[in-house]
Structures are given as C-alpha cells and as structure tokens.
Amino acid sequence: MRAIMLAAGVGRRLFGDENDDLPKALLRFEGKTLLHRHIEILQDVGVEELVMVVGHRKEDLFAEIEAVIAAGDAPEGFIRTIYNPRFKEAPILSLWTAVEELRKGDETLFMDADVLYHPEMMRRLIRSPHPNCFIMDRDLEEGEDPVKVCIRDGELVDFGKLITGDFDEMGEWPGFLKMSPEIAAKLADASQAFVDSGNVEVTYEVAMREVLVTEPPGTFGYEDITDVPWIEIDFPSDLLRAEKIILPQVTGFDPEERDASSQPLKNQASGE
C-alpha cells in the first residue's frame, strides 16, 4: 500500500494569510513533529511508501525527512515528494498534483498532514475489511467547518462540509481514506475533471464526494474511531487543544481498555 499525504499548504487559518511559518506537518509535540509521527505509524501498519505533496517551505520538509532517516526511523526510499507549484491556491490542486500516483494501480491511503492521533486510528482503517473505507468520529463538532460522514441504513451515503440529504447518523471525518486501485483511479479522474474545467476553487473533499455518490451502494465502508483521541489542527484553538488536551490523551490511550461504545475519551477530559 502507498500513502499519499498532502503537506503543501501555508496554514492560513492557523498562522494568517501572509505567514511564513513552518508547514503544519512540522508542528512538534513532545519534541517530535507530526511528520515524524506519521512516518512511524505508517511503517507500523505496513505501508510500503509515503508520497508527500509539498509546496510551502518544502526545504524544511526535506530537512525533516532527512533527519528522520538519519535517526533510523525510516529507511532510504520510503518517502518521495512531489512539488505543487500552485500550493497557495485551493487544496484540490494538491490532490491533482498526485493524480499519477493515484493511477498506479496500488491500494492507496490518502491522508492529511495536520492531524495528531493515536496509532489505533490508523490501525483500524488499514485493517478494515472494507477495501474503500472512511473513518468516522460520532463525536461531531458543530458548525460548517468539520467534514462530515453520513450514514443511512448502515450505508455511507454522503460526505462533505455542507450536507443537505437524508441520513440516520453523521460523524466527523479525520482526514484519512483507504482506497482500492479502482477507486483511487476514479478519484484521480474526478480531480482531473475539476482542474480541466477550471473549477479549482474547491476542496479535495468535493472530488471525493463525486466518486462516493456515483459509485454503487456498498462501494465504501467506514470504521468507527469515536473512542480514539485525535485532532486536526486548523486554527490556533486547535493547536492549544492539541497541546493541552489531546496529546496527554494520545499518550495515555490504551485501545485494549476502550471500545467504540464508550464515552469519547477526548470529551471526558475537556469537560465539554
């Protein structure tokens, strides 16, 4: 399996429009960057290669990759990079940059770079019997910003930030998606179609939804990760929460002592 990670953005919502801060993949928690954590987790679950789409301050990402390899935490050749020269534009252009990787005929793991999480979340996704699989946290944050996964009659029926259809359950998507070779190629085609039409002011989730809603029911499955501590770091409040609340939960989490029916650990600690 190959992982494709989007790590090209400038982090406007976290650092401001004209920032020159480090990429979010280089945020450090207990002295270790998110990228370093991703690399260790991906190797643990058997991913054979990580392809990173880079852009903003790419040299700093290259330096961190070399540092991780030098520390013995990744073998030479495990990580490749692809440069997105339009990294200041909409996120779908980063996905489009990787279309040839999506068409290579391999099982593919899509992932965002700005997520802090316990490895159990990735284990559940990779080990899922569903060849095309989303993950879902039923502890959904309110508002339009979270990307939502919608279930009806046990089937995944919709996906995105703004949902208008009928569904029985809805949860938050943490930003990781496992795909069969066929679905990865269709995601490449959907991304290409948006770019070819000049419609690039959209997020990559729009292309994913295009594939989801046009495939037969049952093509996509999902895994519940509600009990697993995680956070996507988009805003300054997310970074503070990651440092003060989520990181201690990640450190102390024991999947053998938890199950998906229990009260979400992250909310117990936050007092929400």
Describe what you observe in this structure.
The structure is a single chain. This protein has helices at about 10-15, 35-45, 60-70, 90-95, 100, 120-125, 180-195, 205-215, 235-250, 265-270, and strands spanning about 1-5, 30, 30-35, 50-55, 80-85, 110, 115, 135, 150, 155-160, 170, 175-180, 220-225, 230. With about 270 residues, the chain is of the alpha/beta class. It has one domain (about 1-270): Spore Coat Polysaccharide Biosynthesis Protein SpsA, Chain A. The strands form four sheets. Strands 5-4-1-6-12-8-13 form a seven-stranded mixed β-sheet. Helix 7 crosses helix 8 (about 205-215). The longest helix has 17 residues, at about 235-250. The chain is globular. The protein starts with a strand and ends with a helix.
Give the overall form: globular
Task: Calculate the terminal CA-CA distance, rounded to whole Å.
Answer: 38 Å
- For the record, the count of structural domains works out to 1
Query: What quaternary form is this?
Result: single chain
Query: Using DSSP, what is the number of strands?
Result: 14
pLDDT averaged residue by residue: 93
Give the name of the CATH architecture: Alpha-Beta Complex
Largest sheet: 7 strands, mixed
Estimated structural class: alpha/beta
Percent of residues in helices comes to 25-40%
Give the H and E element order.
Answer: EHEEHEHEHHEEHEEEEEHHEEHH
Radius of gyration: 18 Å
Count up the helices.
Answer: 10
What do we call the CATH topology?
Spore Coat Polysaccharide Biosynthesis Protein SpsA, Chain A
